[in-house]
């Protein structure tokens, strides 16, 4: 809702820029989608490395 209100304010102040933003938003989303997937993949790899590094402590009974 907040983004919509910001867009309405932009539409009132400068309607060509607001329409350009409205039309270009799907393109920006498509460009950022691979970067999001890369971020998720890097997070998963780091979680796996953390699990492997803390495995000996968990096997010895640490409950942290």
Helix-strand topology string:
HH
Look at the structure and give the mean pLDDT.
Answer: 91
Separate helix tally: 2
Main sheet?
Answer: none
Question: What multimeric state do the chains show?
Answer: single chain
Total domains: 1
In percent, how much strand structure appears in the residues? under 5%
CA-based gyration radius: 22 Å
The separation of the N and C termini measures 40 Å
Low-confidence stretches: none
Q: Classify the secondary structure makeup into a structural class.
A: mainly alpha
Q: Label the overall shape.
A: elongated
- The percent of residues in helical segments reads over 70%
Total E-strand runs: 0
Describe this structure as you would to a colleague.
- The chain is mainly alpha-helical.
- It has one domain (2-59).
- It contains 2 helices and no strands.
- Helix 1 (2-13) runs antiparallel to helix 2.
- It is elongated.
- The two termini are 40 Å apart.
- The mean pLDDT is 91.
Quickly list its features:
mainly alpha; elongated; 64 residues; 0% strand; 2 helices
Task: Give a brief outline of the structure.
The protein is mainly alpha-helical. Helices cover 89% and strands 0% of the residues.
């Amino acid at each position: 809702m907040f983004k919509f209100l910001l867009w309405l304010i932009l539409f009132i102040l400068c309607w060509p820029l607001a329409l350009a933003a409205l039309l270009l938003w799907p393109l920006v989303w498509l460009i950022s989608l691979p970067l999001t997937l890369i971020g998720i993949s890097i997070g998963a790899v780091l979680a796996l490395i953390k699990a492997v590094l803390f495995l000996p402590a968990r096997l010895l009974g640490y409950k942290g």
